[in-house]
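WARN retry 2 of 3 for item q-0093 after timeout on previous attempt; input resubmitted unchanged.
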Amino acid sequence: MQLVSKTKRVVEAHLNNSSVRAVSGSMVAFEGQVTFKSAGFGGGDGLVAGIKKKATGEGLSLMECSGSGIVYLAQDAANVTVVDLAGETLQVEAQQLLALTSNLQTNVTFAGVRGGVSGQGLFTTTVTGHGQVALLSQGGPLIHLEVSPQSPLVVDPDAFVCARGALSQSFITDVSWRTVVGQGSGEAFSLRWDGTGVVSIQPAER
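OK item q-0093 returned
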C-alpha cells in the first residue's frame, strides 16, 4: 500500500489487499472494496495502550482501513505531509498524526519533566519501522529544520510537530520571550534539541 499526497489537505491511501491505520473520523471518501474497524489507541497494543492513554493523555484513536481501493483522508482542513521512514524512529505529537502504513509500530514514551516548578511529566508518541506517515500541520506546510552538534535548536512546544535522527530533547524554562509576545501566563518552557537530525514545525501554534 502507498500514501500519496496529491493535494495540500488530502492524502490518498492506495490499498491492494492491504491496510492502513488512520485517525478515527478522518475518512472523507473511498473507492473500491474497503472495510473499516477500530484499531485502538496507537500507544501499543490492547490493554497496555489504553492504560498509557489514560495515564499520559497522549494517544490516538485509530481506525484500520482494509481491502482494495483508494481511501481519501483529511482532518480539519490541515495541511498534509507524507514522510518516509527507513527503519527510523519518529517522535511526533499525537494530534499531528493523520495516517501510517500497517508495517509501522507506535508507542508512547516518557519525554521528561517540564521544569522544576510544576514537575509535570511530558510524553510523546513514537512511530518506528519502514513505511510512510502522513502528518498534519496548521497554517501551512511543515517546516523542516536541520539540527547539528554545532547548531542546537530551540522551538516553541506549540509549534513542534515531529523529530527524527540522533537527537536528545531537553526543556528550557524561559519566560522572557513569551512575556514579550503576550503569552506570559503559567510556566513557560521551550524544547531544545541537540545532536544530528531534523525537527519539523508548523507555522501556527496549537
